[in-house]
């Protein structure tokens, strides 16, 4: 049987090459082009809510071949945003309500994602818990407080808090590290005990007001006494408030719910019955209130809470839902609000309305703008030097009813909500 041999034809007499037989294919044929899958979005970008100053991250998941991406903000291309994800590294309050989307493309077409909304809030929990209470030092949400009612800030941005149910003063650093600065929980927790003095770790404190000065002292009002925690963390009696007194070292008053200090280191006290000042030399003077018989607690004046002093020497105090102003010349008048309290109403002067709550305090910035927690209305109110009252909304809604207020050197507000220290970024 003969074997199979290729069929040859003679070329140029000496070279034999295989002949191409019909039906055996062609050397000129090309491979079929690859199939390009058009883009399709599998997972749309999600809306996000972030704290001002932090990043905002958006991402898309898509199928298809050789995809390209172009992110948009409010319909306009974002230069260099050409990946499956996009991060806005540092957010600001003004970024809120921005819309982010992405176009996914290849040679087979393109597809637009839905828009993802960015919400930027200036409200953040620094330490503690909005709902859970307890007594634990720690950082951020690991710390616990119980019944915090008043706060102050020192020049370094450390917060000092009246942690009433734990009979202590707590310190919170700007990084959210919480420690017990003074006080300890007594075995007998009934009533409102008078504070004791001595080393900070051994004393008992039930503070209703608190104030840090510029040399490291932390003052607090407790019972009928004004005390201070020294930089060495010793608790000392600064002033005792006996019932009967005229101007002098003793003060006839009850619990001081408001403390303030001016640039000359003069202390101011607002209590249930009077407004007084204490000079650095220890002299006490009545600013408002009338002395009566000692059996009637020394003075008669409106019930006061909250206190602030501006750079011009004007003194502001809160009582019965109104903000009162005492000018350096002794003129005293209702500056904002009315005894007709209830729902928050913005406006100028006495046309504005606040809620009437015992737990009212004041903070003032270098330009003389006042901030006040409106407890029952779950808001922070802003009062200009002209008496215009508005509700602070730029930072977003508050997660509860605010108690106590302080302002730092960067214009951030701090308040107490639930059992937490909350930061409110205004810009």
UniProtKB/TrEMBL annotation:
Entries under Gene3D superfamilies matching the protein: 2.40.10.500, Immunoglobulins (2.60.40.10)
Signal peptide: 1-22
PROSITE patterns (alphabetical): PROKAR_LIPOPROTEIN
Protein name: Ig-like domain-containing protein
UniProt cross-references to SUPFAM superfamilies, sorted A to Z: Immunoglobulin, NHL repeat
Lineage start: Bacteria, Pseudomonadati, Pseudomonadota, Betaproteobacteria, Burkholderiales
The organism's place on the tree of life at top rank: Bacteria
InterPro entries reported in the protein's UniProt record: Ig-like_dom_sf (IPR036179), Ig-like_fold (IPR013783)
Keywords, ordered alphabetically: Signal
Transmembrane segments: none
């Amino acid at each position: 049987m003969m074997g199979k041999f290729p069929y040859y034809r003679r070329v140029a007499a000496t070279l034999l090459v295989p002949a191409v037989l019909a039906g055996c294919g062609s050397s000129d044929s090309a491979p079929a082009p690859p199939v390009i899958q058009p883009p399709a979005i599998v997972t749309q970008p999600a809306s996000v809510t972030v704290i001002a100053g932090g990043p905002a991250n958006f991402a898309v998941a898509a199928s298809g071949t050789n995809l390209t991406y172009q992110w948009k903000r409010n319909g306009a291309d974002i230069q260099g945003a050409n990946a499956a994800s996009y991060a806005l590294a540092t957010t600001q309050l003004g970024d809120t309500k921005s819309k982010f989307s992405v176009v996914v493309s290849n040679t087979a077409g393109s597809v637009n994602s839905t828009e993802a909304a960015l919400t930027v809030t200036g409200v953040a929990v620094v330490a503690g818990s909005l709902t859970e209470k307890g007594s634990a030092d720690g950082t951020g949400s690991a710390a616990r407080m119980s019944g915090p009612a008043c706060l102050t800030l020192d020049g370094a941005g450390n917060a000092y808090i009246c942690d009433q149910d734990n009979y202590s003063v707590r310190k919170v650093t700007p990084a959210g590290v919480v420690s017990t600065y003074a006080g300890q929980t007594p075995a007998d927790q009934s009533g409102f005990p008078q504070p004791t003095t001595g080393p900070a770790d051994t004393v008992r404190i039930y503070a209703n007001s608190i104030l840090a000065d510029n040399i490291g002292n932390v003052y607090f009002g407790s019972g009928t006494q004004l005390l201070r925690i020294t930089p060495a963390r010793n608790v000392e009696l600064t002033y005792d408030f006996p019932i009967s007194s005229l101007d002098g070292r003793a003060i006839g008053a009850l619990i001081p719910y408001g403390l303030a200090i001016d640039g000359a280191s003069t202390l101011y006290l607002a209590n249930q019955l009077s407004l007084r000042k204490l000079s650095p030399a220890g002299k006490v003077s009545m600013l408002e209130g009338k002395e009566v018989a000692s059996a009637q607690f020394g003075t008669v004046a409106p019930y006061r809470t909250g206190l602030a002093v501006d750079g011009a020497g004007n003194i502001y105090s809160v009582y019965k839902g109104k903000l009162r102003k005492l000018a350096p010349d002794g003129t005293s008048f209702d500056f904002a609000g009315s005894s007709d309290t209830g729902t928050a109403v913005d406006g100028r002067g006495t046309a504005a309305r606040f809620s009437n709550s015992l737990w009212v305090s004041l903070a003032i910035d270098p330009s003389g703008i006042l901030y006040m927690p409106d407890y029952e209305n779950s808001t922070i109110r802003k009062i200009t030097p002209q008496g215009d009252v508005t509700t602070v909304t730029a930072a977003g809604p508050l997660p509860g009813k605010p108690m106590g207020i302080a302002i730092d050197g960067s214009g951030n507000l701090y308040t107490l909500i639930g059992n937490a220290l909350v930061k409110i970024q205004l810009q």
